[in-house]
């Protein structure tokens, strides 16, 4: 029991991002950073209903339990929208985005999640939308496998990892046998997207044919139209390079064929790792490298579960700590009391000797003429006796307080514990006792104080101040200040 209670505190840490999962309608790909190497693994699926089982299998296979993951949604699993930029702050915009795009999607605002960033034109906002049901399924699968979803981004954004910062580039990419996707980046920032339909796979093959040449001419025409449009948008930094990454195609030959037909340089994407041979693996690797710096995070902070401090485990742990603290405090005071016993016996013996000496001196005074010297001696002895009596009284009071007062008060205070009250600070000095803590509700504090009459030591305590408020975490706090006795002048 004790181990389970404390494990929730001892095992909490900030896990590092060392893996990324890219999800597609027909595959799940994981990229794992292992020391100086990267491991890439892919599993084919028939439908997205297999996501949870495949995610759990990949996490267990690569021993990722306890890790923080980056999730990348592939094409078809999200929508990309361009809307007018509203006059809202960052936090307000995050909450308002689902309602700003409600007329552009089929789902209700409550059923979608959205995130965005300012486009190249400052008056426009690039927004990405996914369904809340899809997000919950992914997050639940990762949590069931013992991992935490740190961020959830989209394929269109992570392609920036294959571009360079000091130039504008257009990436032509295709996943599987799907449609061609055009994604343009300037300074590593996405600012244009377009989909090209009707182009067969592969675009280049051996031997070449007239149909293939016509298809390449048609593709080059569509690309040139996009390049002309982008040149008009980027007057200061036009597109200077076109990157090719198409599945089921010879990207090198495709780049050579397009170089002959376009005015800009065309080059096949050449990842630094030889394992990145497909679009799925490249997207997973890009998500791993981009991590928390991604411009899009559909799993934002307000969607993540809030940590419940006032849980059963936390309450049990706090009471266990309190009981241990009370036991240790009681043991310390008992030990100090036993240490004071010899001093008390010595003082009592000195008091008995002093009293005997005083009695003898008084008898001698009766038999002799009183002299000033003897009077001074008597006065000095009397003062010494009074000082020792005061010392004995102080020691006795301090000893009784240690053995009875504090130990009994703390014991009865622990017995009077309430599930609605958590004490954070106890201050006891003599008959004064101050209490600070948190409560489940404002009326829980008076009800708890009413139970003090059942305990002899607590019933003697009087309080002059009860202050109930709230802290920064919106928890109800209380301060009980004991009544101070004013000494007579």
UniProtKB/TrEMBL annotation:
InterPro entries: ATPase_NBD
Highest taxon listed in the record's lineage: Bacteria
Protein name as it appears in the record: MSHA biogenesis protein MshI
């Amino acid at each position: 029991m004790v181990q389970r209670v404390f494990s929730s505190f001892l095992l909490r840490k900030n896990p590092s991002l060392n893996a990324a999962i890219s999800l597609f309608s027909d595959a799940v790909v994981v990229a794992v950073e292992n020391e100086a190497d990267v491991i890439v693994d892919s599993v084919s699926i028939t439908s997205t209903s297999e996501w949870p089982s495949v995610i759990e299998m990949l996490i267990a296979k690569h021993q990722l339990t306890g890790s923080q993951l980056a999730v990348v949604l592939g094409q078809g699993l999200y929508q990309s929208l361009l809307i007018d930029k509203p006059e809202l702050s960052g936090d307000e915009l995050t909450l308002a985005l689902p309602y700003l795009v409600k007329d552009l999607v089929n789902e209700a605002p409550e059923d979608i999640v959205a995130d965005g960033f300012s486009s190249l034109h400052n008056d426009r906002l690039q927004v990405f939308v996914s369904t809340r049901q899809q997000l919950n399924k992914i997050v639940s699968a990762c949590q069931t496998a013992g991992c935490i979803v740190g961020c959830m981004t989209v394929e269109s954004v992570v392609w920036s990892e294959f571009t360079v910062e000091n130039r504008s580039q257009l990436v032509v990419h295709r996943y599987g046998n799907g449609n061609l996707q055009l994604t343009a980046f300037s300074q590593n920032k996405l600012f244009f997207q377009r989909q090209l339909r009707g182009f067969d796979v592969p675009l280049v093959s051996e031997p070449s044919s007239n149909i293939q040449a016509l298809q390449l001419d048609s593709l080059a025409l569509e690309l040139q139209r996009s390049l002309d449009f982008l040149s008009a948008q980027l007057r200061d930094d036009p597109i200077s390079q076109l990157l090719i990454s198409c599945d089921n195609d010879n990207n090198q030959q495709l780049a050579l064929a397009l170089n002959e037909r376009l005015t800009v340089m065309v080059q096949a994407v050449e990842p630094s790792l030889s394992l990145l041979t497909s679009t799925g693996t490249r997207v997973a690797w890009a998500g791993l490298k981009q991590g928390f710096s991604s411009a899009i995070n559909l799993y934002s902070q307000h969607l993540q579960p809030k940590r419940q401090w006032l849980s059963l485990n936390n309450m049990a742990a706090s009471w266990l700590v309190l009981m241990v603290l009370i036991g240790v405090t009681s043991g310390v005071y008992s030990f100090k009391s036993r240490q004071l016993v010899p001093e008390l016996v010595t003082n009592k013996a000195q008091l008995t000797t002093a009293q005997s000496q005083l009695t003898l001196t008084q008898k001698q005074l009766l038999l002799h003429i009183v002299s000033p010297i003897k009077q001074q001696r008597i006065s000095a002895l009397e003062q010494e006796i009074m000082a020792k009596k005061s010392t004995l009284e102080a020691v006795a009071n301090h000893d009784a307080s240690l053995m009875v007062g504090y130990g009994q008060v703390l014991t009865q205070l622990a017995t009077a514990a309430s599930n609605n009250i958590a004490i954070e600070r106890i201050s006891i000095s003599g008959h004064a006792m101050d209490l600070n803590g948190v409560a489940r509700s404002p009326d829980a504090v008076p009800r708890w104080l009413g139970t003090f009459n059942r305990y002899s030591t607590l019933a003697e305590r009087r309080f002059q101040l009860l202050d109930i408020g709230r802290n920064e975490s919106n928890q109800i706090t209380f301060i009980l200040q004991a009544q101070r006795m004013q000494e007579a002048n």
